[in-house]
Amino acid sequence: MASQDHLASLCKVVFNNLAYQHDWTKLQQHAQADQPRPLLYGLPPKRLYVQPDEQIDIIKAEKDRGERIPQEPEVEWVLPVHLSEKWSPAQFAAVFDGIDAIPPGGAEQEASEGDEREEQWKLWRGPKRGKRILLATVQDDSTVTYYWIFDGLVKPRQN
Amino acid sequence: MAASAERQVRISRVAGRYLVFDIDDVLYIRRHHGICAVLTGTMPQNPTQNLFLSLPVELQAEEAQLLVDKGAGYIADELNDHLLRLSTMNDSTRSAYLQHIKQQRRNAQRVFEEEKAKVQARHQNKRKANRPASPSSAATTTEPAPATVTEDGDSLFDTPKPTPPPPSLTSTLKEKELPLPGVTPTTSYPILPAITSPASPASIASTNATTPSFYPLYKYLNSRGYYTTPGLRFGGDYSVYPGDPFRYHAHYLANSYGWDEEVAMLDLVTSGRLGTAVKKSFLFGAEKPGGPQQSGGGDGAGGVRVFCIEWAGM
């Protein structure tokens, strides 16, 4: 199966790139029957994405506490694709429909942090987290570019 | 508010373009329906910068379609409408129009006469002021060919009548002597007075045949209070604003695709990169076939699925 080999090597390139160039940990491959291809998930060394509304809640909470709130990294989904591929909106929809917003193991990690209070900013790491996938686009020279792809309307970050 | 809810915007379809000529309509659709559209009016011989363009406003086909679907407007095929109304004109409107044209020609004549009299009067005053100051020697220098010109004759402003009567008299006199100047009507207002509601069903054109493929995505964004402008400057179909573009920067650059249309990954990456560079997110959406029935429109999405792409910063 040439296409299976292709997908396996694609995953491997992204896996290694994340593990050795970007220092991700707890990397796992995630195959699912209703998914067109295996996904990866793992823990980046520092937090990769903060939703703009979440950022507002964090700033509010920081103001109340009078100190900075350290932002722990979250477990993220990764979808490996090759630059020469063509994807239709239907395929992206299928990928999003097959996953939960929080990758396996992500929820436990959040719970283990201890639930002191139901603070607004914390909800963004749990029930309010939208579906997002890191789109890892591989080129022939093994360059990998990472883009977020979000399910639904997600306003841009103030970067 | 009740009045604005009943307002019917007349969208004129001229040569396949959808135009709105009434400034009140333009304000209304911008304020109540989130449609800014594009001002296109300018002088053809001296086009101005985009910033200074004026009425009419040109709607995209999907914007016109949305207004029609909401019941807030109707599309008038101007060519058919004009022909229809002109051909059904009765004799009294015809004579009223001819009278109107004649009146316009008289007005033009009067303005012309007044202007001429003014110039003549000014010139004569100048001559009177000059004459005592300059004796005969000076007259020869100012007038190189005085031999044939008589003292009261005016070489520059020679008129058939040596002594023009006051302007009020000229207009009545001239009417018999000279034909009135021709007037080219520049609007059809006098002959076709403004209409505020669809005159006849025949003048309403249907848009259903030309529903553009962008329509589902456009409707989805509009129903969420987003404003859109043409997105060419960022390489997309739309720039999407969270409110009136006068007040906000765009949040997204949007592209509409077919549900099974294959999009090159390079397009997604480059658009995402461009969007991030201009502090926007690249949005693409598609309508799921048979979507409106399936989702029941509970979330108002109407089967439209959208995705946003942003650079991950790593």
Automatic annotation (TrEMBL), chain A:
Pfam families: Sen15. InterPro entries: Sen15_fungi, tRNA-endonuc_su_Sen15, tRNA_endonuc-like_dom_sf, tRNA_intron_Endo_cat-like_sf. The keyword 4Fe-4S does not apply. Residues 14-159 form the tRNA-splicing endonuclease subunit Sen15 domain. One of its GO terms (biological process) is tRNA-type intron splice site recognition and cleavage. Keywords: tRNA processing. GO terms for molecular function: nucleic acid binding; tRNA-intron lyase activity. Belongs to the SEN15 family. This is tRNA-splicing endonuclease subunit Sen15 domain-containing protein.
From TrEMBL, chain B:
Residues 215-286 form the tRNA intron endonuclease catalytic domain. The keyword tRNA processing applies. Its EC number is 4.6.1.16. Keywords: Endonuclease, Hydrolase, Lyase, Nuclease, tRNA processing. The active site is at Y241, H249, K280. Residues 108-185 are annotated as: Disordered. It is an enzyme of class 4 (lyase). One of its GO terms (cellular component) is tRNA-intron endonuclease complex. GO terms for biological process: tRNA-type intron splice site recognition and cleavage. Residues 119-130 have a biased composition (Basic residues). Residues 132-148 have a biased composition (Low complexity). It comes from the Eukaryota. GO terms for molecular function: nucleic acid binding; tRNA-intron lyase activity. Residues 9-77 form the TSEN34 N-terminal domain. Pfam families: tRNA_int_endo, TSEN34_N. InterPro entries: tRNA_endonuc-like_dom_sf, tRNA_intron_Endo_cat-like_sf, tRNA_intron_Endonuc_cat-like, TSEN34, TSEN34_N. Belongs to the tRNA-intron endonuclease family. Constitutes one of the two catalytic subunit of the tRNA-splicing endonuclease complex, a complex responsible for identification and cleavage of the splice sites in pre-tRNA. It cleaves pre-tRNA at the 5'- and 3'-splice sites to release the intron. The products are an intron and two tRNA half-molecules bearing 2',3'-cyclic phosphate and 5'-OH termini. There are no conserved sequences at the splice sites, but the intron is invariably located at the same site in the gene, placing the splice sites an invariant distance from the constant structural features of the tRNA body. This is tRNA-splicing endonuclease subunit Sen34. It comes from Parathielavia hyrcaniae.
